[in-house]
Every structure is written in C-alpha cells, then in structure tokens.
Amino acid sequence: MADPTPSTSEALARLDMSLIDVMMTQRAVRRVYPDPVDDEIVMKCLEVALHAPTGANGQNWEFIVVKDYETKKKLAKRYRQAWNLYYQTVIRRVSKRDPSMAKTARAVQWQVDHFTEVPVLIVACLKLGPKDGRIPFVPMPHAALSGFYGSIYPSVQNLLLAARAMGLGASLITLPLWSVTSTRKTLGLPVSVTPCCVVPLGWPRGRYGPTTRRPVAEVMHLNTYGNRPWMGTG
Ligand SMILES: Cc1cc2nc3c(=O)[nH]c(=O)nc-3n(C[C@H](O)[C@H](O)[C@H](O)COP(=O)(O)O)c2cc1C
C-alpha cells in the first residue's frame, strides 16, 4: 500500500496517474490524519482547479485556504448544527433500511467530530465580477443561476481529482455553509463573494476504492425523457 503521508515530491510525482483511474476511484474520503499538507501540494490542487471552465470565462472564483484552528472551529460548529438537523430529520430513518447510508453517516459523523483536526479546509467561492449580471439578493433566472453555481463545481471536481491522484483524502461538502451570513463573517467575505462549498483535505486514514454508481443505461434517455432503449444493456 502507498505511504498515506508521502513527501511533497512523492505526492506531486503521483500526478502522472492515469486519468481514467483517477476518475473511477475518486470518492469522498472524510477520515484523514491531522498531519499537515504542504502548501505546495495545496497550490498544485488549486492550479489544476483553475483549468476548469466558468460561465463567460469569468474565472470569478476565490478559494479561502483555512488552516487556523479558531476559524475551523467556527465552521465546525455550523457543520455540526446542520448535520444534527439533517441526521435527525432524514438520515437516521434512511440509515435503518440502507446499510450504505448508515456507513456514510458514520463517516460524516467522524468528519463533524474531527473537523478542527483536518489540516486544510478549502472554501470555494464565487465573486460577482464585471461579466456577471447578478445583483446580490436579487433572484436570478434559471439559466443565470445555473451558470452562476455551475462556474464553481468544474473547478472543485478538478481539485478533487488532483487531490485523489496525489493520494490526499478529500470530499466536497456544503453543510458547514448553511448560514451564508455566518460564513461571510467567519471568513471576512464581502457580500459580493458567495461561499459555495468546502473541500477538507488531509492524508487519508482509509483507502480509495471503486465507487458504486447507477448504471449508465438507467440514466441515459434518447431524445426525450423516459425513452431508454439501452435499459438492461449493461
Ligand atoms: C453538492 C454536494 C454537497 C455535499 N455535501 C456534503 C456534506 O455536507 N457532508 C458530507 O459529508 N458529504 C457531502 N457531500 C458528499 C456526498 O455525500 C458524496 O459525494 C456521496 O455520498 C458519494 O460518495 P462517494 O463518492 O464516496 O461514493 C456532498 C456532495 C455534493 C455533490
């Protein structure tokens, strides 16, 4: 098994991993060691992230790299509040009949309980720029809203893939940001900057492995919704 806490040069060298292997084994790895992650590795993740597309090529992203204990504690408090509510109202019931959900819930609970020990939290944000017609607090039409939030997630996926290739544990999470006002206060964000998601990064305690996903034929429709001629073909 590869060293879970490699040197920076070893981690960077792992970026030559085959793309298909990276994509097929990237998954939410929530249990990580508290050992530090070198800034060079974090910057490499962000460099890869920045090669993603954005609406009108606005590149209106900002990434807050949180390493400070007190800041992590404030985000951890919000994460626990949101998770407790979500667990009590939805997840506990679903977990009773779905063992995979129960397993995920245990991993989330671990992450909530150890959030301040995660060495790096990257908060991915979007900033309103000159190319962006959005005015804060004014509802956007669907295409604009989709284009707005759609401008952060390709970069976050790139970040996750780079992290996975280097052997870092990472996940995409949104629950700690349930209160945008509180997040802005914690991170000193102006109203023009919207926090979208958090990627906790650290060296993994567990292993990466293949993910379980729905079969392609089940979600692939020809021309109109519901027309699935490939159904049952693999
Ligand atoms: C938009 C979005 C929000 C998510 N929010 C959280 C979260 O707040 N906490 C968490 O533990 N996982 C969160 N996840 C991770 C999902 O639970 C995870 O991707 C899913 O269970 C698949 O896990 P796997 O890749 O390990 O199979 C989020 C994922 C997405 C795409």
TrEMBL record:
<dbReference type="GO" id="GO:0016491">
    <property type="term" value="F:oxidoreductase activity"/>
</dbReference>
<dbReference type="InterPro" id="IPR029479">
    <property type="entry name" value="Nitroreductase"/>
</dbReference>
<feature type="domain" description="Nitroreductase">
    <location>
        <begin position="26"/>
        <end position="203"/>
    </location>
</feature>
<dbReference type="InterPro" id="IPR050627">
    <property type="entry name" value="Nitroreductase/BluB"/>
</dbReference>
<dbReference type="Pfam" id="PF00881">
    <property type="entry name" value="Nitroreductase"/>
</dbReference>
<dbReference type="InterPro" id="IPR000415">
    <property type="entry name" value="Nitroreductase-like"/>
</dbReference>
<protein>
    <submittedName>
        <fullName>Nitroreductase</fullName>
    </submittedName>
</protein>
